[in-house]
Amino acid sequence: MAVKKEFANFVKPMPVKDPPKGLYADPCLWMEAKDLEGFNAHFSFRFINQPAGPFHPLEGAIIHPFDELMVFETAGNTKNILEFGAEISVELGEEREEYTFKQPTAVLIPKGTPHGSFKVKKLKKPIVHYSIGLGPAYSASPAKWAAAPSRGTKYSKYIKKMITAVTPPPPDAEGRLAPSVIGKDGIMRPAKFGVGPGNGDEIVWLYGPDLEGFNINFTWGLYSQCGKWHRGGESHYHPEAEILAFVGLDPDKLDYLGAELELGMGKDLERHVFNKPTVVVCPGGFPHLPLITRWVDKPYGFFVACLSGEHASPWVETKE
């Protein structure tokens, strides 16, 4: 008989479901605070497989009562996280300023800012798209804006390259990734530099000061190796709540992860094993780790969303 685990409610398979009406044309991975033990945000994850019509929203312009991040990333080259091969546009603000990007990008949408549809103009191969809304549930209202798109730079600061800035200081040996793992190209390579063999092949990490004051830091990483992710201690915690999202990179199988991982939860390091797309909720102050990749059939993706502009990760003292 299976033993009931104390923290099983924090380890959640990601459901494939229809998004809110008028947002996307196809099902995606979608979870809100009610699915995440009250974590005060919601997120979606999907692939863009081909140049298509508009999305988020499917038509018109909308506003949200929360800050939102729209992230567009590579879907699988673990040796080049900057590979993109797409061209995407979006219109922001009442002025309908149009912005087009051709590299991995996070589009920040402050609460109350009108925005129109995202449009995929060119696409050489599938890419990842995920969103993070800094509110417990998705909601949107129709917005009014200019009759036609315009040129301008008012909202240009909200178009962010997906590369790691060196300030604020990235994690160090006291529970953070060392600055030495960041290349001159703004890419973290923790597995290569000895942080832990199971850690990311390539990662980007954006912090609040890089995000116009949004109360979040988040990552995107590509992973392909087995082993423990961290050295320096058995478990750590963060002052603020975070989610750990493990996703597959097969654009035709949203419910496929391609790897199996083991994660310790709580002060007694209660072990949880999963091999499907999974999100782990870590309340503020909650010990978690060690994290170990047990096997990998295909490279997989991983992103963190932590509800703070910074990312403190003190190690938990363990008794001998």
Description:
There is one protein chain. The chain is mainly β. It is built from no helices and 22 strands. It has strands spanning 11-13, 16-17, 28-31, 42-48, 62-63, 68-74, 86-92, 97-101, 105-109, 119-123, 127-133, 141-142, 159-161, 202-206, 217-223, 227-228, 242-248, 259-265, 270-274, 278-282, 288-296, 300-306. The strands form five sheets. Strands 2-3-4-11-6-9-13 form a seven-stranded antiparallel β-sheet, with no helix packed on it. Strands 1-20-17-22-15-14 form a six-stranded antiparallel β-sheet, with no helix packed on it.
Structural descriptors:
320 residues, Jelly Rolls, 2 domains, mainly beta, 35% strand
**How do the SSEs run, as a string of H and E?**
EEEEEEEEEEEEEEEEEEEEEE
Query: Roughly what percent helix?
Result: under 10%
DSSP E strands, number: 22
Outline, from the CA principal axes?
Answer: globular
Widest beta sheet: strand line-up: 2-3-4-11-6-9-13
SS-based class: mainly beta
The CATH superfamily title of the largest domain: Jelly Rolls
What distance lies between the first and last C-alpha atoms, to the nearest angstrom?
32 Å
Strand residues, percent: 35-45%
Query: Which regions contain 5 or more consecutive residues with pLDDT less than 50?
Result: 172-176
CATH class of the largest domain: Mainly Beta
CATH architecture of the largest domain: Sandwich
Radius of gyration: 19 Å
How would you summarize what this structure contains?
Helices cover 0% and strands 35% of the residues.
